[in-house]
Design brief:
The chain is built from six helices and no strands. It is mostly helical and 173 residues long. It starts with a helix and ends with a helix.
Amino acid sequence: MNGIITIILVILIGGLVLATAYFLLKLFFNNEREQRTWEYKTQHMKITTPLRLQAYERMILFLERLAPNSLIVRLQMQNMNARQLQTEMLTLIRAEFEHNLAQQLYISIQAWDVICSAKENVIKLINLSADEIDANASSMELSQKIITNWININPTPVRTAIDFLKKEASQLF
């Protein structure tokens, strides 16, 4: 009978030691995994943060260049009619947007939606302004109409998008 009790005690003690070892090793390996995950994220952030900031910078530059007053200054030439200016403005907006398409990888979906919305609103403003004047009007008349309509929007879609991007970029720090 003593032999059976001894065997049962040895099995219980062995089971207790085994369970303790199991839980300690599990705790150790979980801690190691968390530490490695944290190190990976830290290394990852060192690489992606500059890329994300650069994307925010490029998108803010795109938005600044998208503003009608900026477009008009860059594109308006003498002897240009309203339709030519309208076409040039829309072509430039689309070209610059396509040039920056890859930046959506580094910014949030909401930020990209705000940028696309600002672009579409500027295009809509240009087209509506062009529809409000004579087809053969000078580019100066179209410029004045666009600027007048742009001033009446408060806040402008470009300003709203830039503010959104600034706020989101500040969360990276």
